[in-house]
Amino acid sequence: MQPKPPELLKTVVIVGGGTAGWMTAAALSTALRGRYQIRLVESDEIGIVGVGEATIPMIQVFNRIIGVDENDFLRETQGTFKLGIEFVNWGRLGDRYMHGFGPVGQALWTVPFDQYWHRMNGLGRAQDLGAYSITRMAALANKFMPARDDLENSPLNHIAHAYHFDASLYARYLRKLCEGRGVQRIEGKIVSVSQQEAGEHAGHVQALQLENGQRVEGDLFIDCSGMRALLIEQTLKTGYEDWTHWLPCDRALAVPCESVLPLTPYTRSTAHRAGWQWRIPLQHRIGNGHVFSSQSISEDEAAATLLANLDGKPLAEPRLIKFRTGMRRKSWHKNVVAIGLSSGFLEPLESTSIHLIQAAIQRLIDFFPDRGFNPVDVEEFNRQNRFDYESVRDFIILHYHLNQRQDSDFWKACTSMEVPESLRQKMALYRAHGRIVRFNNELFSEVAWLQVMQGQNLRPEAHHPLADLMPEQEVFDYLEGVRGVIGKCVDVMPDHAAYIKKFCAAKPPAKM
Ligand SMILES: Cc1cc2nc3c(=O)[nH]c(=O)nc-3n(C[C@H](O)[C@H](O)[C@H](O)COP(=O)(O)OP(=O)(O)OC[C@H]3O[C@@H](n4cnc5c(N)ncnc54)[C@H](O)[C@@H]3O)c2cc1C
Q1: Range of the domain at 220
Q2: 147 to 156, 162, 207: CA distances (angstroms)
Q3: Percent of the chain at pLDDT above 70?
Q4: pLDDT at position 166, please?
Q5: Domain count, the chain
Q6: What is the whole-number distance in angstroms between the Cα of residue 341 and the centre of ligand 1?
Q7: Which atom of ligand 1 approaches the CA of 48 most closely?
Q8: pLDDT (tens digit per residue) in 352-384
Q9: For ligand 1, what atom is nearest to the CA of residue 53?
Q10: Cβ(51) to ligand 1 under 6 A?
Q11: CATH code of 231's domain
C-alpha cells in the first residue's frame, strides 16, 4: 500500500513569550521552513517568570540548530560560561565537591577510569576525584576556553561548557531573532479559550479570545503559559502528578546582587537548613535564590538566610516564587502540547528545565502532527517526555537523599525517605562495585552520577575485579599522568573574565 500524503496543518499558535515560548518559536521557525504560520501570544501585563539563568552543555546544540553565534548570544544576554556546579554542605556541613561537565580521567579499554581510581583511593594513593577533571580544575582556577577540536588526545579537547545568562534578555534576544524569521507576535491577555464541540476532534482547542477583542485561531497550540498552564490544565484538565513527597521544597526567593571578583565560571549551590541557595554569576550582576520548604521554615527566615549569604550588595527586594514539583499527566493532549513550566516543574538544582524545554521541542519536531493527530504519536511523545522528567527527578532526589546532615529535621527526613525504585537500583549498583548504569540514554551520564554519589560520600564496598589486573604502580602512574597533564592544560587556559572581555563583553547595563 502506498502511504497517503499527510494533510498538513496551517497555523501553529504558541501561548506565552517566556523562555519556553520563544525557544519553541525559534526552533519551529527554523524547522518548518516558512511552510506554516507561527503566531506567539504573550501578555506584557502578566510578564514572564524571569528566572532560569543556568544551563547545561546541550544548549550549544540548540543554539547551533537555530543558528545562534555563541559570542553574540553572550554579549546580548550578559552571559558567562559555566563549567559545572559546585555543591557546598550537601553531604556533611563543610563538604564541597563539584559536578563538572565532561569526562573525569581518561578512558582505558577494560574498565572505566573511575574503577582504577576507586582501587587507588582504597589504597590511599589517589587524589580527590575532581583532580582528574579538567572542567573542575579549570573552574576552581577561574579559567575558561572552549574545547580545542584540533587537539584530539588532549584534555583541552574534553572541555564541556554551558552558559549563565539573564533570562529576560534571553527572551528578548530570541524574540528579535524569531520576528526576523516571520514569527508573528501578538500582545494581549487571553481571557477565554474555545474548543471544538463535536466530531473526530471534539475538545480540540480552536481559538483564543483576547481581552482586546482579538480572536486567534490555530490548528496546533503549544502551551508555554508557564505555571498557569492555561490550555493543558485550565482548559483540558489534564491532571498533575505531585512529587513533593520526594522533593519537599515549594518556594524560591530570588534576588540579584552586585558582582564581585573573580568572575567564576560555575554555578554554586549551597545547602541551608531547609533547602539550598543558588549563585549564578553574570557579567552585570550575580543571580541568587533560596529554594526552601515552607513546611520547615518561614519566608522571613528564608529571606534572612538568602540575604546573609550574598557576595555583593542586593540590587532589589527578594521576589517570592511558589511552585509544586511534579509533572503534567500528559504533556500532549488533543491538539495542545505543553512545553516549559506548563508541563511540569523540577527545581533548578542541576539547571535542567531549559534542557527539558529543548528536549520537548526536539520531540515535537520528531512527532510533528498532521491533521489526523494520530494517538500513537501522541502517546510516544508523552512516554518519552515522562522518561526525561523521571530520570532528572531521580538525579535531583539523589542529592537530597544522600546527605549526612544531622542539623535539621528537613535533612533527616530526606535521608530516611523511600526513594523511587529506579534510583534505589542505581545506588545499590554503585554501593556494590562502584558500577553506574545509564538507563536508556538518560540525560545524565555515568560521570555525572559518579561525581554526585562520590561527592556526597556514598562509597562502593568493592571495585570492579578487572581493575586489579593492572599492576598497582602502573595504575598509580597512569592516574598521576592524567592529573599532571590536566594541571599543565589548566595553566595555559585564559582567565574566564579575560576570555569574556576579549570575545563577548556585553555593553554596560542600564542603571536598575
Ligand atoms: C526559582 C526558579 C529558578 C529556576 N532556575 C532555572 C535554572 O537555573 N535553569 C533552568 O534551566 N531553569 C530554571 N528554572 C526554570 C525556568 O525558569 C523555566 O523553565 C523557564 O523560564 C521557562 O518558563 P516558561 O516560558 O515556561 O514560563 P514563563 O516565563 O512564566 O512564561 C509564561 C508566558 O505565558 C504568558 N501568559 C500566561 N498567561 C497568559 C494569558 N492569560 N494571556 C497571554 N499570555 C499569558 C506570560 O505572559 C509569559 O509570556 C527556574 C525556575 C524557577 C521557578
Answers
A1: 11-80+165-240+325-390
A2: 6, 12, 47
A3: 99
A4: 96
A5: 1
A6: 6
A7: 29
A8: 999 999 999 999 999 999 999 999 999 999 999
A9: 8
A10: yes
A11: 3.50.50.60
